[in-house]
Design brief:
The protein is mainly alpha-helical and 151 residues long. The chain has nine helices and no strands. The protein is globular and about 40 Å long.
């Protein structure tokens, strides 16, 4: 959820348009200084967060595609139910016009999201791989193989 919000913030503020691409490096360094024990705040990763948010919000039908996918996922395990209940709580102050953070995304590791986003040509295709990842508890290598083979 944090990555989604940070990607959204980078998009909303359009920081690099006003101050150049160096602003993402600056934000990266600031986050690393503020949270020295945390990982994942490289400039490259911040660009991925922005790209991830844009990828899913660029298609007008993304919200309905996500809803359809979530309706078909069986979330019977207690682990999935626990994560879903935590994500369902309203934690982000989002504009009404924004795509809310899809709860199902919390079941997919970040590097899986990056792989899916980079290899998918559409939101529908990406959501197919998100669903496969959740249902099959796929490792990143297995997911990569499935994407390359086109299963």
């Amino acid at each position: 959820m944090f990555n989604w919000q940070l990607g959204r913030d980078l998009v909303v503020r359009k920081a690099e348009e006003k101050w150049g691409t160096g602003i993402v490096n600056k934000v990266s360094l600031d986050l690393q200084a503020e949270f020295p024990e945390a990982k994942g705040f490289s400039a490259r990763n911040l660009w991925f967060m922005k790209q991830w948010y844009v990828f899913y919000t660029s298609e007008s039908n993304a919200s309905s595609l996500i809803s359809d996918m979530e309706a078909h996922i069986d979330i019977h395990s207690s682990k999935l139910k626990q994560v879903a209940s935590e994500i369902a709580e309203p934690k982000l102050n989002q504009l009404d016009s924004e795509l809310m953070f899809p709860a199902i995304f919390a079941f997919v590791p970040w590097k899986h999201h990056v792989l899916i986003m980079q290899k998918s040509k559409s939101v529908g295709e990406a959501l197919f791989y998100v669903q496969r990842t959740v249902e099959g508890n796929l490792s990143r290598n297995t997911l990569d193989n499935i994407i390359r083979v086109g299963i």
